[in-house]
Design brief:
This protein has 302 residues and is mostly helical. The protein has two domains: 37-116, no CATH class; 119-300, Hypothetical protein af1432. 63% of the residues lie in helices and 3% in strands. A hairpin with a 2-residue loop joins strand 1 (8-11) and strand 2. Helix 7 (125-146) packs antiparallel against helix 8, helix 10 (173-185) packs antiparallel against helix 11 (191-199) and helix 13 packs across helix 14 (238-253). It is globular, with a radius of gyration of 19 Å. It starts with 7 loop residues before the first strand and ends with a helix.
């Protein structure tokens, strides 16, 4: 892929192509860009239909053996703590509800997105995936403590928060590798500052654009776009963005996976207060994180 076509300008905070294309348009045309499986795309579309019923989801999931197994694995996991084993896909869908089914469909696709083989790359995307699972795990636990109504949505938001890194890697692999080398050589330079130097924008911008290309829900795009700047998120998604931001910091503190993107391991007391988190709660979540990551990797790796 010729790299000369991928120089960016930043105008009014929006990354654009020099030839006038938006980042969304350019990403959509990018050869080899990871895509979501057709079943996941159909479930995402179905989730936007307020008249959809459980049987509509069953018709999609039941013909996808891998996703069917994943749904059963999740519904019978400690996520839900049900008193009996569920072995019916239809019953699992009813128990989980449409939002959880949507989240499982997307989450089950993410391991392949993060860990696809890219010849010639000396960067192991598995380390980024591990970090993302850690952020997802912490996000769900923070959501429960914060009284957020959909902890599974917080899990998925944590899982996709750094997906812009994968978009950058696919956009220009050699430039991405240079970025990582400079990030290692300049540990005190914020990662987004280095990204601006090499890509004209950040993984937050790339991630938000990829969410739009994939037609993911707006709240997931908001997390991808603002997880390092929770104060900048829209009011409707600020709590979720804040949850993922705290989870990102806790994963970095725990040293789980590639966390160089995290610019500070300090947490704003004001943000913790808004989420109803005490220092003791934060410490407990961090202490339990390694075990939770191990459990969740088993659930979502294929």
């Amino acid at each position: 892929m010729p790299h000369t076509t991928h120089d960016q300008l930043v105008t009014d905070g929006t990354m654009v192509e020099q030839n006038g294309e938006s980042l969304d348009e350019a990403l959509a045309k990018l050869p080899g860009l990871p895509t979501l499986p057709q079943t996941a795309l159909e479930i995402l579309a179905l989730a936007k239909n307020p008249d959809a019923v459980a049987d509509d989801y069953y018709q999609l999931i039941s013909v996808d053996p891998a996703l069917s197994m994943r749904v059963l694995k999740v519904v019978n996991s400690s996520f839900y703590g049900l008193s009996r084993q569920i072995d019916s896909i239809r019953q699992a869908i009813v128990l989980l509800g449409p939002n959880a089914v949507r989240n499982i469909a997307v989450a089950s696709s993410m391991h392949k997105v993060f860990c696809a083989q890219r010849p010639g790359m000396c960067f192991d995307p598995q380390s980024l995936w591990t970090h993302s699972v850690a952020v997802a795990t912490a996000s769900r636990r923070i959501a429960v403590h914060a009284g957020f109504p959909e902890p599974e949505t917080a899990f998925l938001a944590g899982l996709i928060h750094d997906v812009g890194m994968i978009a950058e890697l696919q956009w220009d692999g050699p430039k991405f590798m240079t970025l990582l080398r400079m990030a290692a050589d300049e540990p005190d330079t914020p990662f987004r500052e280095l990204e601006a130097r090499y890509f004209g924008g950040s993984h937050e911008e790339f991630g938000a654009a990829l969410c739009r290309v994939w037609k993911l829900p707006e709240h997931l795009e908001a997390v991808a776009a603002s997880h390092h700047r929770p104060e900048d998120g829209s009011d409707s998604h600020r709590i979720l963005v804040g949850i993922v931001h705290v989870a990102d910091v806790l994963a970095a503190r725990s040293g789980i996976g590639y966390a160089r993107t995290v610019e500070s391991e300090d947490l704003e007391p004001e943000l913790l207060g808004k989420l109803g988190l005490t220092p003791e709660t934060v410490e407990t979540i961090q202490e339990e994180l390694p075990e939770g990551v191990s459990e969740n990797r088993e659930l979502f790796e294929v």
